[in-house]
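Data card: per-record layout.
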Amino acid sequence: MAAGILGWAALVLQYALVLRGPLGADLFTRTVNFFSYFTILTNILAALALTLPWLAPQSALGEFFSRPSVRTAIAAYIIIVMAIVYLILRHLSNLQGWDFIADLLLHYVMPILFVIDWLLLVPKQALKLRDTLYWLAFPVVYLIWTFVHGAASGFYPYPFLNTGELGIARVLLNEAGLLVVFLILGSILVTGGNRRKI
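The structure for this 198-residue chain is written out next.
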């Protein structure tokens, strides 16, 4: 619950910073662009998974986010978030103050906390390798949205998805590579999880 509360606080902080930042000309545009980041969407899923099973365990959403397969999928998503930021994006900006704090929480602290939760508290013996194919639905829908939204607005949340600068062929190659990474990471989590007692 503490991690979940921290996650929601980080999301609210980041949204407040976006509202006063240069992410769009008006409130609606800034809000749409805010929710166009895979980091934001994944942290929302993580916060839901950390809070709903406690707040509403009998609800449909509470039961959904309690499923080991769902929580493992979110673990894979948020590991990718941290890895991409650390390996590719961290040198592209020099954040200060509250921007730095929000970035630290969403890209490093929450991924680490969620993975710890997954390692210690999520039953893993029933995970199947075929689950990893279902887990691709979220990133595939996200990539389609990014492509369509970017073509219509010119806004791309990540430079490696910018078709205006890289071209469609290069971006499609990048997207295919990301999906392969998702599959590999998901397979590692399933295989490793099956070998754990929890």
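Known properties of this structure: The chain has one domain: 2-194. Residues 2-194 form one domain.

See the next section for split statistics.
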